[in-house]
């Protein structure tokens, strides 16, 4: 997937798309199988909003910092991030590998009176380009060909654009807490995470650099009994980064 003519559907693992497709029905239920995503989403949104304000010199008090801008959410699920991006003023396109997720996302957006361009399929085959903001949350660890996926992401980012990525780190702590404990305790559905597919910040930096992108300093998403999930200097479990063209 180094360019649009050689990118193929092999970045999408059919079993991964099927797994998340099965979760589509209750994706929007904060107490359902995707409850952890509902706890994670506000933390990610806090980082994304701060990054938008900094990158685009937006007023931090403004409600629509993305007004007049185009945003793309890759691996959108049922729209948990796409809808807030729309409410921030962006014209939003959102892509997912599971048709069930796109159906759920469209239904939820229509019920809320939101106009979001949802697409099902392989990112590189959709011909998307020129976006001011590109987001992909907890997605890269699920794709089969990570360099190809990052190359496809790079093709969607417009000049002067901002990308935000988040993903679990591959550490002993993430194996114990995010895979073994979280799935055993029912905090995330079984089969959601495969620790061997997690990537470290250094590995992500190198993937991005190879695609002509520059990674900012990663910020951790940590968990504690008092704060719950929160932004932190601790990268052991999960991290989120800004990305721009090199």
TrEMBL record:
<dbReference type="GO" id="GO:0102208">
    <property type="term" value="F:2-polyprenyl-6-hydroxyphenol methylase activity"/>
</dbReference>
<feature type="binding site">
    <location>
        <position position="137"/>
    </location>
    <ligand>
        <name>S-adenosyl-L-methionine</name>
    </ligand>
</feature>
<feature type="binding site">
    <location>
        <position position="44"/>
    </location>
    <ligand>
        <name>S-adenosyl-L-methionine</name>
    </ligand>
</feature>
<dbReference type="InterPro" id="IPR010233">
    <property type="entry name" value="UbiG_MeTrfase"/>
</dbReference>
<dbReference type="Pfam" id="PF13489">
    <property type="entry name" value="Methyltransf_23"/>
</dbReference>
<comment type="pathway">
    <text>Cofactor biosynthesis; ubiquinone biosynthesis.</text>
</comment>
<comment type="similarity">
    <text>Belongs to the methyltransferase superfamily. UbiG/COQ3 family.</text>
</comment>
<feature type="binding site">
    <location>
        <position position="75"/>
    </location>
    <ligand>
        <name>S-adenosyl-L-methionine</name>
    </ligand>
</feature>
<dbReference type="GO" id="GO:0061542">
    <property type="term" value="F:3-demethylubiquinol 3-O-methyltransferase activity"/>
</dbReference>
<protein>
    <recommendedName>
        <fullName>Ubiquinone biosynthesis O-methyltransferase</fullName>
        <ecNumber>2.1.1.222</ecNumber>
        <ecNumber>2.1.1.64</ecNumber>
    </recommendedName>
</protein>
<keyword id="KW-0489">Methyltransferase</keyword>
<dbReference type="GO" id="GO:0032259">
    <property type="term" value="P:methylation"/>
</dbReference>
<keyword id="KW-0808">Transferase</keyword>
<keyword id="KW-0949">S-adenosyl-L-methionine</keyword>
<comment type="function">
    <text>O-methyltransferase that catalyzes the 2 O-methylation steps in the ubiquinone biosynthetic pathway.</text>
</comment>
<dbReference type="InterPro" id="IPR029063">
    <property type="entry name" value="SAM-dependent_MTases_sf"/>
</dbReference>
<keyword id="KW-0831">Ubiquinone biosynthesis</keyword>
<feature type="binding site">
    <location>
        <position position="96"/>
    </location>
    <ligand>
        <name>S-adenosyl-L-methionine</name>
    </ligand>
</feature>
